[in-house]
């Protein structure tokens, strides 16, 4: 059972310094993404938060407990939202794929930096490798099932799902960093390629509005 959300305080020159469970998790997540799992250390994190190591144990049983919670956070964001978008009811397959595209647009739904931090971690840990393989399979299967609901044969649906999903993972791995203004004009062609169907003008307009509402203008 998780420890209560007690606030740890340290008296100092500027008053009480507080560190919550969310502070520990946020810093651990940032460290995992920027420096890798080996740098996620209790002592180092405590120094950065300017609290004692003992405060860590109000919230976590051990470093492994913290790592397990980071992995669960990844599952509950990157994988969950792809599956949810793939399962969303859609009038056409075009709309179904557009729902999945939302994950590639909004990093609150899918954080590519976190995904690749987990992939780097998996190269060092057979346990994380299994978790990653399971997540990739769950994501692809959810997209396959979306295609099948729209009348595609199972093998065709499976291949289309793999192309859609692994193309995007490859896009991230190449660190192309194209601005959204360069990517958006190709959305209709991507939809045709993934589905074999022609998107309507309304489809493209609706997706463009979603992007405009979601993506900061700097991207």
Automatic annotation (TrEMBL):
It holds the Pfam family TetR_N. Residues 18-78 form the HTH tetR-type domain. The keyword DNA-binding applies. InterPro entries: Homeodomain-like_sf, HTH_TetR. Keywords: DNA-binding. It comes from the Bacteria. The keyword Heme does not apply. Residues 41-60 bind DNA. This is TetR/AcrR family transcriptional regulator.
């Amino acid at each position: 059972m998780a420890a209560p959300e007690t606030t740890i305080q340290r008296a100092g020159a500027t008053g009480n310094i507080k560190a919550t469970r969310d502070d520990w998790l946020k810093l651990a997540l940032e460290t995992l993404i920027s420096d890798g799992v080996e740098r996620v250390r209790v002592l180092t994190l405590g120094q950065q938060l300017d609290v004692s190591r003992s405060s860590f144990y109000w919230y976590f049983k051990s470093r492994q407990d913290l790592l397990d919670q980071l992995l669960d956070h990844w599952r509950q964001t990157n994988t969950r939202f792809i599956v949810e978008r793939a399962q969303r009811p859609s009038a056409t397959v075009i709309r179904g794929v557009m729902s999945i595209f939302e994950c590639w647009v909004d990093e609150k739904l899918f954080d590519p930096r976190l995904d690749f931090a987990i992939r780097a971690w998996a190269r060092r840990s057979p346990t994380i490798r299994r978790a990653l393989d399971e997540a990739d399979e769950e994501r692809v299967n959810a997209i396959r099932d979306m295609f099948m609901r729209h009348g595609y044969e199972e093998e065709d649906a499976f291949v289309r799902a793999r192309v859609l999903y692994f193309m995007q993972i490859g896009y991230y791995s190449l660190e192309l960093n194209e601005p959204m203004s360069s990517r958006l004009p190709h959305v209709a062609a991507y939809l045709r390629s993934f589905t074999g169907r022609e998107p309507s003008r309304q489809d493209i307009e609706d997706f463009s509005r979603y992007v405009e509402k979601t993506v900061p203008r700097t991207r």
